[in-house]
Inverse folding.
């Protein structure tokens, strides 16, 4: 029987005057958010009581309440479980798609020289879609770093080299994905590659030959585009924003030899988009029917703002057709650059047959601290707490944008991730509006290296990894006044404003 991760059942909020009601609400929230899956075993009443320092009789009454109301069920001699609500839940997480053998053999063919397209972005990135360093769990990390630093005082070189290989780090990351995110990684079907670009290069070069064709749903992702350009592969572009995305995909794979579909189903780039469960299942059916792989990239799994988190394609029984790349966490730069790759054993072996680039930056103290963060439950707890903070920031920023600018621009609030997608009005280009703000002595926080590639761009990718409501409100008020003046004065007003800017 699978071991229970007790830290998932730790109540970190202060225990209130009605602990029995708090336990019931806590367990129901776990189930509704899919953090506790149908069929998952709960801690025993005694273990739950000891973990949360709550009277065992109170826990007993809370469990009885949850059993009576149909949230939990018991099996004699086995324990208490989250109740399954229907047949669809019986098989949802019972098996893993990460099998040993690849369903499609990778064949190395002759190099085909065909022109590749370099991506051109029609948007400008403002703000940061990465976390403010203030959110970094510094105290916990420093505590664990100091603990391991002492161990290195008299360590042998061979022991340090063993740490450098990162075996313990990989195992801790694997347990985090399996215990806290319901993946089913075994040791042979997962690896770690430092850096997003390097992980994409390793995967693309393993599975595609020059001249091969893939379907790219992130046509303006510069990092991905540069990797595909260097690999000399051909791209067909589809948008997951289209209601008939799956139909278009099927029409394409019927007539074209597609080897790979690239998806960011939790946070379409740059659009804010989430594929629902039905579309995910249909895409998997197409992959199995027409024999192509799916490369799923998942950076923002910690930041979801719906009732339930997104279920990655990798958590379906995909029979080896899904290759997964995900950031361990957004809580620190090191964890963000820890790219977890999940695939069949054959694929991992093939990927590792090509020697990787030497890793010039490898911090064993940081990795040991992250291992302790995972074992103690701190990583899960910090991620949950920061998600709540970012959800509030998202809601506050959405209120500001709608309150001042909803009449003038399209505003798309994200279901996940750390950025909004905004389309500026036709009568005022994005560049004109940003120049206007700078004339008003507002420092526009352009993302480094992501300014105006297209002077006629009308879309903004607005990050809120760092958010200040006063700063956002001042800029929104000024833009509202400008847009109102342009519309009030017509073309003459627009011309005068353009000259002033």
């Amino acid at each position: 029987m699978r071991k229970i991760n007790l830290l998932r059942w730790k109540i970190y909020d202060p225990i209130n005057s009605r602990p029995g009601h708090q336990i019931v609400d806590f367990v129901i929230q776990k189930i509704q958010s899919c953090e506790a899956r149908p069929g998952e075993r709960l801690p025993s009443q005694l273990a739950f009581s000891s973990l949360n320092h709550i009277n065992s009789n109170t826990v007993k009454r809370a469990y009885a309440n949850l059993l009576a109301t149909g949230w939990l069920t018991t099996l004699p001699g086995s324990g208490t479980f989250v109740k399954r609500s229907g047949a669809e839940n019986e098989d949802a997480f019972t098996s893993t798609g990460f099998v040993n053998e690849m369903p499609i053999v990778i064949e190395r063919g002759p190099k085909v020289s065909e022109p590749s397209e370099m991506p051109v972005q029609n948007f400008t990135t403002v703000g940061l879609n990465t976390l403010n360093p203030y959110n970094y769990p510094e105290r916990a990390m420093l505590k664990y770093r100091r603990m391991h630093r002492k161990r290195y005082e008299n360590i042998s070189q061979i022991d340090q080299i063993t740490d450098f290989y990162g075996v313990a780090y990989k195992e801790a990351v694997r347990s985090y994905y399996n215990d806290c995110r319901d993946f089913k990684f075994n040791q042979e079907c997962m690896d770690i590659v430092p850096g997003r670009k390097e992980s994409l290069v390793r995967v693309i070069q393993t599975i595609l030959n020059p001249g091969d064709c893939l379907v790219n749903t992130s046509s303006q992702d510069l990092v991905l585009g540069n990797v595909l350009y260097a690999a000399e592969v051909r791209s067909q572009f589809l948008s997951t924003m289209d209601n008939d995305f799956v139909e278009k995909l099927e029409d394409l794979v019927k007539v074209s030899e597609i080897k790979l579909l690239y998806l960011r189903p939790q946070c379409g780039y740059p659009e804010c988009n989430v594929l629902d469960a039905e579309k995910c299942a249909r895409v998997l059916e197409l992959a199995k029917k027409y024999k192509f792989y799916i490369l799923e990239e998942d950076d923002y799994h910690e930041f979801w703002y719906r009732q339930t988190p997104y279920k990655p394609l990798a958590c379906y029984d995909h029979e080896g057709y899904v290759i997964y790349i995900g950031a361990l966490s957004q809580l620190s730069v090191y964890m963000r650059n820890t790219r977890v790759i999940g695939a069949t054993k054959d694929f991992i072996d093939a990927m590792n047959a090509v020697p990787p680039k030497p890793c010039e930056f490898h911090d064993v103290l940081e990795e040991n601290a992250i291992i302790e963060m995972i074992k103690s439950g701190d990583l899960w707890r910090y991620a949950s707490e920061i998600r709540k903070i970012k959800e509030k920031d998202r809601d506050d920023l959405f209120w500001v944008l709608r309150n001042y600018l909803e009449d003038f621009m399209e505003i798309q609030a994200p279901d996940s991730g750390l950025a909004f997608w905004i389309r500026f009005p036709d009568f005022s280009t994005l560049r004109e509006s940003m120049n206007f703000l700078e004339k008003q002595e507002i420092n526009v926080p352009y993302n480094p290296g992501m300014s105006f590639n297209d002077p006629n761009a009308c879309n903004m990718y607005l990050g809120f990894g760092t958010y200040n409501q006063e700063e956002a409100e001042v800029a929104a008020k000024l833009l509202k006044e400008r847009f109102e003046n342009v519309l009030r004065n017509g073309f003459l007003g627009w011309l005068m404003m353009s000259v002033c800017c």
